[in-house]
Every structure is written in C-alpha cells, then in structure tokens.
Specification:
34% of the residues lie in helices and 23% in strands. The protein has 7 helices and 10 strands. The protein is globular, with a radius of gyration of 16 Å. 38% of the residues are buried.
Length: 224
C-alpha cells in the first residue's frame, strides 16, 4: 500500500499484482480504509486495485448543491461535489494510476452515506466510471430525485449496486424517512434504462457494519 497527499486529501493505493486489473475509487474516512480492504480480501474478490480517498470535507466534497441543516444541531451541506470531482479526475486519478501495474481494465466508484450519493451523482457529470456502488447512499438529499429523473448519465454504466439498512427510514425526521423509498425508486429507474442493478436491504441502522457493507457492494460490482 502506498499513500499520497493531494490537495490535503489522503490517497491510499492498494495495487493489484496483475497488470490491467480494474481500479475502484472509494471515498471514505481514513479509519475505515484498512477494514474495508481486509473485508474485500476475505470475500475473495477477483484481481483489482483499490484507491481510497479520505480526509474529505464530507458535507462539502460529497454534496452536489447547498442544503440546509437536517436537524437543529446539524451543519449545512455546501455543495462542493463538482469541484471535488474535478480534483479526482484531473489530479488524484492520474497520480494514483501512474503507480499501478498498467492501465486499468475499467474504473469504478464507490462510497457510503454522502459518498454513496456522490457515487451516483458523478455518473451524471463524467463518463469515466464504468460501475458504481452506493451503500446507504444519502438519497434523502433534497432535489436528488428531481435531478436523476430529469438528467441522463454521461454513459450507461455496466452495473450499479445499491444497499440500505432496514431501519434507516424508521425516523421521525421527514427529510430522512424517505431514504428507502427514494433509493428503491432510483434503482428501479436505472434498471429501466437497461442497466444491471441490485438493491440489498441489510439488517440494522445507518451506522451498523458500514465497512462490511461497503466491501459487499464493491465485491458485487467486481464480479459482474
């Protein structure tokens, strides 16, 4: 594993020994990276490279536009996804892939929570990613349903993975309690466009088994 720092972001690169293996870009927290990778190894994935980006400004880098606080003590989301995506495409990916054994067969994008929202949103902004996995994606985000229903992805991805905890929509917060309905509607919409999709409903809340759920989603897109 090699680590880089690019524009204050930490980039951990886990190369494959096999040239031309696909590369998965995972936006995450630095304390989750090793656990996700160990879970992937335990699942017996085919040859792949993992590039994990952390030390993100989570409510800024992963959100497509401004959204006010969802509760009294929360902070707003400030809509920096387009700027972060440009950094990912123009600087992080070239530097990371220069350290890999050959050009990747394809590139995938994965993330949990707001990073799961970003994984889908990015497909509407760039044609680089062939596959994506959104685990517990924040599809309660205001305006996201209207956006995906009125825009087209830049390319038709090979496959898309969606998952959610079965207790995530069990909340009195009217913003958050639509998350399962929205996730399933997005998955149905994508499937209707001829994309191979799956929706997995895990047991538990948003904060349970996050790293295992992340690894499960990446494992699925690697095995299509």
């Amino acid at each position: 594993m090699t680590s880089l720092t690019i524009e204050q972001k930490r980039v951990d690169i886990y190369p494959s020994a096999k040239p031309g293996s696909p590369v998965i870009y995972l936006n995450t927290f630095s304390n989750a990276v090793n656990s996700v990778y160990k879970n992937l190894m335990a699942l017996g994935c085919p040859d792949f490279c993992l590039v994990a980006v952390s030390k993100l400004k989570w409510d800024h880098d992963m959100t497509p536009w401004y959204m006010g606080p969802i509760s009294k003590h929360d902070t707003p989301c400030t809509g920096g996804a387009d700027d972060y995506l440009k950094l990912l495409l123009d600087e992080i990916m070239p530097e990371a892939e220069a350290l890999l054994p050959g050009a990747p067969a394809w590139q995938g994008l994965a993330g949990y929570s707001l990073a799961g929202l970003f994984a889908l949103y990015a497909l509407y902004q760039t044609d680089v990613f062939a596959r994506a996995a959104s685990m517990s994606g924040s599809f309660w985000f205001e305006g996201i349903m209207e956006y995906v229903c009125s825009h087209e992805m830049k390319r038709k991805p090979d496959c898309l993975y969606f998952s959610l905890g079965d207790k995530e929509s069990s909340t009195d917060n009217p913003i958050l309690n639509v998350v399962q309905q929205n996730t399933q509607e997005i998955e149905t919409l994508c499937h209707g466009k001829g994309i191979e999709t799956t929706f997995v409903l895990n047991s538990g809340s948003h904060y349970q088994a996050c790293n295992k759920r992340t690894a499960a989603g990446i494992h699925w897109i690697l095995n299509r």
